[in-house]
Amino acid sequence: MNRILIVKVTSLGDIVHGQPVVSDLHRAFPGIKVDWAADAAFADILRWNPGIDRVLCAPLRKFKKQRSVDSLKAIAASIGELRQEKYDAVLDLHGVYKSAIIAFLARSRRRYGYTKADLGETGAAFAYNKRFAPKGDLNVWDGLRNTVSQIFGYSIDDAPRFGLSIPTPAVMPEAAKHAPFALLFHATSSDEKKWPVGHWHSIGRSLTNLGITPLLPWGSESEHKDAIAIAAGIPGAIVLPRLSVEAVAQHIDMAALIVGTDTGFVHLASALQKPTVMIFTATSRQHFGIDVPGLSTSVGDEGRPASIDEVRAAIDAVLDRPKDTKQNGTFDSQTPDPTRSA
């Protein structure tokens, strides 16, 4: 196989999960060219992977919101770029209408997509002439790796390689002055995935006692308000300005620690092999959790939000600190913490 197109349009975390497939394909088929089609909002992640030859992107989300002529022109141009190459195979790992249309427009005789029962939108089935079922009972990236390896007949016998290299910022961010710092990713896609503000206060104060400055990123006005509320309870905490995807990734690359809910940037942090703690409240830890021994770990689970003590212990583990932190003075045991029993 000489050239393959992978279609995974959104979102940030899902695209990060798929990156080990690129490395697997290169090992299975030396010299292969791997192209990837995605929404323009997440194209940066793909450009950070040197194993991807062409990043094909269009402002699909932007057009859906704004219906602008410029976005429509950009989509038309992306279709022309898509059809410049002929593929030995097109692999749709998304399974919805927009990904199916991309797969259908690509020049290939083999278009792989999920079986109808496993599609995100059943109408997407029109685009495929070869079907596959996802590998179940595995976390999301292992599931993808195993699924693709079975499709193309190669074996997997090593740990996932994400292959991402974050570009160095042209100007050093202001946050660098506050190193060592931790990024607290409090924002979520739904309220049920949030962790209580008081819990963040407790963890943030623990970090300041370690000499680590808590930094709070955000991406919307409601997230900005939450960041301000969390920072208000943590002496020395800093609410960051609104950052691009690339700028957030650069902050992750410089951070001493990342703590956050089950969101794309926290998955990116683990993929970059940063000390990372992922907090679960409403999604499945088994399927979406991170676990790199000595580097990243997950706490809590679907329907059982992580406790403050669990997060503290996880931070100690990824920072390689003594477990009995209260006795050695790592955490502040002098001031009563009203959130501690939550």
TrEMBL record:
It comes from the Bacteria. It catalyses: an alpha-Kdo-(2->4)-alpha-Kdo-(2->6)-lipid A + ADP-L-glycero-beta-D-manno-heptose = an L-alpha-D-Hep-(1->5)-[alpha-Kdo-(2->4)]-alpha-Kdo-(2->6)-lipid A + ADP + H(+). It is an enzyme of class 2 (transferase). Residues 318-342 are annotated as: Disordered. Pathway: Bacterial outer membrane biogenesis; LPS core biosynthesis. It holds the Pfam family Glyco_transf_9. The keyword Repeat does not apply. Its EC number is 2.4.99.23. Residues 327-342 have a biased composition (Polar residues). This is Lipopolysaccharide heptosyltransferase 1. The gene is waaC.
